[in-house]
Write a structure and sequence with these properties.
- By secondary structure, this protein is an alpha/beta fold.
- 33% of the residues lie in helices and 19% in strands.
- Helix 3 links the parallel strand 2 and strand 3.
- Helix 1 crosses helix 10.
- The longest helix is centred in the last third of the chain and has 16 residues.
- It is globular, with a radius of gyration of 20 Å.
């Protein structure tokens, strides 16, 4: 191994990270995806739209609602769905995140498949109590007599470089400590479609945070068939033996760049893991991989410390 000290490796990683900020990255598409059927080139918002279309088509009890979703939403993820399925199944709500999630919980408990959109993840906090005290605990507090497991909440998250304080946050960590919820962050169009359909059909309430910088920057050949990808399963994207780098969402592409820089400039072999699911997280894969080099870094996009942009 070229570097014998974990401290030195961390220092080198920090220098690499300084060159690759969260909102400046090179997107790395998934290739050789083992999903049968015809594929089409889509960016991430188109893949999400395709997933919602599939959910509405295959489940007559599915409804999509949120602020401005009727005309397609600010990021166009619900484009033309109201025209196709009608205003009773795809409809706008008042600007009230607590009300959106509260309505979604009630609709799911009554038997509907509720797919809610919070227009920006930064504004999910008024609905925090509904999510962590109501949705997450609904089955437990009723002794399994009732549940709202057919609730899925979508929210665009993360920075794009000009969103300022109320349009740049990544709040997934706040929900990662809440038993009863599942928290997912996709890294691209193929994962976004498959994970969203899995969330919609999962028996537990799910939050899927969609990195909005990927809506148009991420383009892949997405299968047109209806397919689901597993929740709670991490992906090993780059093999390595000296260091394990763990991330999710847009940060995965930053880490792949960092791994390439480490290999090229410092002869350090870094493994890159996409956690995919924040809750539940893939304990088996992470622990198995992390114990080999015994050096692991988990950079996040939740915030930037002025003294250390890596953590």
């Amino acid at each position: 191994m070229a570097l014998n000290s974990a401290r030195k490796i961390a220092e080198k990683c920090g220098k690499c990270a300084e060159r690759r900020w969260f909102s400046h990255f090179a997107y790395s598409p998934d290739e050789n995806v083992n999903i049968a059927g015809e594929k089409a080139k889509m960016n991430m918002f188109q893949a999400i739209n395709n997933a919602l279309d599939s959910a509405l088509r295959t489940d007559s009890k599915a409804i999509v609602f949120g602020e401005d979703v009727g005309f397609g939403g600010v990021f166009r993820c619900t484009l033309d769905l109201q025209k196709k399925y009608g205003k009773e199944r795809v409809f706008n709500t008042p600007l009230c995140e607590q009300g959106i999630v509260g309505f979604g919980i009630g609709a799911a408990a009554a038997g509907l498949t509720s797919i809610a959109e919070i227009q920006f993840a930064d504004y999910i906090f008024p609905a925090f109590d509904q999510l962590v005290n109501e949705a997450a605990k609904y089955r437990y507090r009723s002794g399994s007599l009732f549940d709202c497991g057919r609730l899925t909440v979508r929210a665009p998250c993360g920075a794009v470089g000009h969103g300022a304080l109320y349009h740049s946050q990544s709040p997934e960590a706040y929900f990662a400590h809440t038993p009863g919820l599942k928290v997912i962050v996709p890294r691209g169009p193929i994962k976004a479609k498959g994970l969203l359909l899995s969330c919609i059909r999962d028996p537990d309430p799910c939050l899927i945070f969609e990195p909005k910088v990927l809506y148009r920057a991420a383009v892949e050949e997405v299968p047109l068939n209806d397919y689901q990808l597993p929740l709670g399963k991490a992906d090993v994207l780059v093999k390595g033996s000296d260091l394990t780098l763990i991330g999710w969402g847009t940060q995965v592409h930053v880490l792949k760049e960092v791994a390439a820089l480490l290999k090229r400039d410092y002869q350090v072999s870094a493994e890159v893991i996409d956690l995919v699911s924040i809750l539940p997280w893939d304990v088996e894969t992470v622990c198995q991989k992390a114990k080999i080099p015994k050096r692991t870094l988990t950079p996040t996009a939740n915030g930037v410390n002025r003294n250390n942009p890596w953590f």
